[in-house]
Amino acid sequence: MLSSKLRSFTAISLMAVLLGTSAAGVYAAEDSSFESAGEATANIVSGWNLGNTLDSYGTWINKNGGTKAYETAWGNVETTQEIIDSVRDQGFNAIRIPVTWSQHIDSKGNVDSAWMRRVKEVVNYCYNDGLYVILNVHHDTGEGGGDKVSWIFADGTTYSNTKSKFKGLWTNIANEFKDYGDKLLFEGYNEMLDKNNSWNEPSNTSSYKAVNNYAQLFVDTVRATGGNNISRNLIVNNYVCSIYKSTLDNFKVPKDSVSGHLICEVHCYDPWAFTGTSSVVTWTSTHDTFKSSDKSDIDTIMKRLKSFSDSNKIPVIIGEYGAMYKSNTSAIAEYASYFVDAAGKRGIKCFYWDNGKYNTKGEYCIFDRKNNKWKTSITKAIKKAAVPYSTQGSSAPTPPDKPMYVSGWNKDSKGWFYISSGKKVVSKFKTIKKKKYYFNSKGYMVTGVKKIGGKKYWFNKKGALTTGWKKSGGKWYYFTSKGAKTGWKKIKGKWYYFIPSKYSAMATGKIKIGGKTYKFSSSGVWKK
After folding, report:
1. CA dihedral for 337, 338, 341, 347, sign (positive or negative)
2. Quick one: CA torsion of 220, 225, 231, 236, rounded to 10 degrees?
3. Beta strand pairing call for 184-187 and 132-136
4. What is the reported pLDDT for 491?
5. How many C-beta neighbours within 10 Å does residue 330 have?
6. Please, are residues 458 and 479 in contact by the beta-carbon 8 Å criterion?
7. For residue 125, what are the CA distances in angstroms to 179, 238, 258, 369?
8. pLDDT digit string, tens, across residues 76-90
9. What are phi and psi of 337, to 5 degrees?
10. Among positive and negative, which fits the CA dihedral 472, 475, 477, 483?
11. What is this structure's pTM?
């Protein structure tokens, strides 16, 4: 979603989901047991958008800040496993991850490795929690001009000039994720406009052909990468994801090498009289309470979507919906409940748009990610309305048998771990960028003073092996790269003794060493 949706429309993204039948091992090749489109939509309870995060862009962003500079450019914090866990704990079992690739690809669509790694990390946070994950191409489409970075437009000439780049981008993405199971879905593009930035309907009907061409190219490209992508659920959109009858009638569902695997994803911000603010909605008056007229508008929309779904034999989901905050949280909860119920009874599942701007008037946000604070009246309303229409009910998502990780450092709710040659580093030291770490029997990085192989070692708060003086358990130790020093040690011209029988604790007072009594000060210095 754009930061300002200044239009009176309800958006539809048509999501082509290619099916198989059941969850597969994440490292396996093509799995013919992927679930169908109907099964996927039936299993989804409700979804949430990680908005204004990996979809952020700007020519003003300092590239030297790395992926974090882009991810946090629009005011949100870096995404963590804890944030995704919190989304899951609110009852959502699906997450849509909007991603803008434009500033991270070359002219052939090849993706910068650091950006791809970060996207993969965030996907893994969701996927490893057992959530359905929608990964898309976001503000590469949308409005053009100004500081925009869009390069995909509903325009015949643009399609001819960018189809190779578009194919290259999706080849990169599909290959990177080809071994993931059926909980991962791809969405080919977000809200595609013509070059006149025409919302609702294009300026010229020729734009429909361009959209349909991109949709077909997306499906063909992903399928060609093989592996689990042969049966992966894919998402394609109609013109600007609009629910206008003309845009729906002119959308052509792509041909596919497999059948029965398409889903339509809907973006719906109607009824604008309730969901919008007076500064945005100029074509009608707005109100803060949820009225019967709003319910009627929603019912009309859902009936239209159900008709479209039935006539095209395609399940529909709503990939974006929400209401601008006007100090009316209770009314938004009432709206969300009615909206989700009206959709659910027609087999349509919904994803709330959240841009992270908590309690800011005119913005869409139900989750303060920085402080892990939710508008629970809204999330409870969504869950209560959604659960009856899901085959999973209120059951917690089931994590995959084989979680997916990026090579190198990873983090989950239990701590940091390191993947080398496709496996966790377990019960051993590992030197990484000239620093030494230790990973315990479960593969997690240790910190503090730890006993390893009969010796004590000191690891700082970031897990790196550290040397020098350290007090632990009321006793002082002197650590070297080979563990706590044992026996006599001269440090800065003074002698100390570290007792072997006490895991190398520094000696103080009188003690016997080799049958001879020695005296040490309270600071451990030998008194000759």
Report:
1. negative
2. -40
3. parallel
4. 96
5. 13
6. yes
7. 16, 30, 29, 15
8. 999 999 999 999 999
9. -60, -50
10. negative
11. 0.87
